[in-house]
Design brief:
By secondary structure, this protein is mainly α. The chain has six helices and no strands.
Length: 169
């Protein structure tokens, strides 16, 4: 990445982190409001989508370049397996916490009959989905995508090199 693109990456990282963590502050439930009828701060991510997409692409690109520098293939595979295990664990942990909160909401609010009436991402669950763990989850998923992209590109280049060597001889 050249310096301008790297600078834009860090700007987008800063914007995404601020909004990602600020979502909890903007969406706190009001006292006495048990309806959970709106989540007005969810419009904020719509405006930062260009920054978010550039952050995702930049993280995958940097991960791809990091994966290309691994000299030992076993180290790359090990890092992918470890990243996948942590990502699955974080995803499962987040899902379990969101379901537990949803069940708690159903118990406290009498006008809701079943948990299926409440989505997992709602006014009360923003602190579960917009926190450091899920931010790490996003980075891990970008690393996995970048590393797999790097492996695929290496394989494609090696097969193209083999084909070109066969054509020459």
């Amino acid at each position: 990445m050249n310096k301008i693109l790297l600078f834009l990456y860090f700007v987008s990282l800063l914007v995404v982190m601020l909004v990602f963590y600020g979502m909890n502050l903007f969406t706190a439930a009001l006292e006495g409001d048990d309806t959970g009828g709106s989540n007005p701060a969810m419009i904020i991510p719509v405006f930062i989508l260009p920054f978010f997409f550039y952050f995702l692409y930049g993280t995958a690109e940097l991960s791809m370049r990091l994966a290309e520098r691994y000299k030992n293939r076993n180290m790359l595979i090990g890092s992918l397996v470890l990243s996948a295990a942590v990502a699955i664990s974080l995803g499962a942990f987040t899902f379990v916490r969101a379901r537990a909160l949803r069940d708690e909401i159903v118990q406290k609010l009498e006008h809701i009959e079943s948990a299926s009436q409440i989505p997992l991402l709602n006014l009360y669950s923003n602190s579960i989905f917009f926190n450091p763990l899920t931010f790490v989850l996003v980075i891990l998923l970008c690393y996995i995508a970048g590393a797999l992209w790097s492996i695929r590109r290496k394989r494609r280049q090696s097969t193209e090199n083999k084909r070109s060597n066969q054509m020459v001889t």
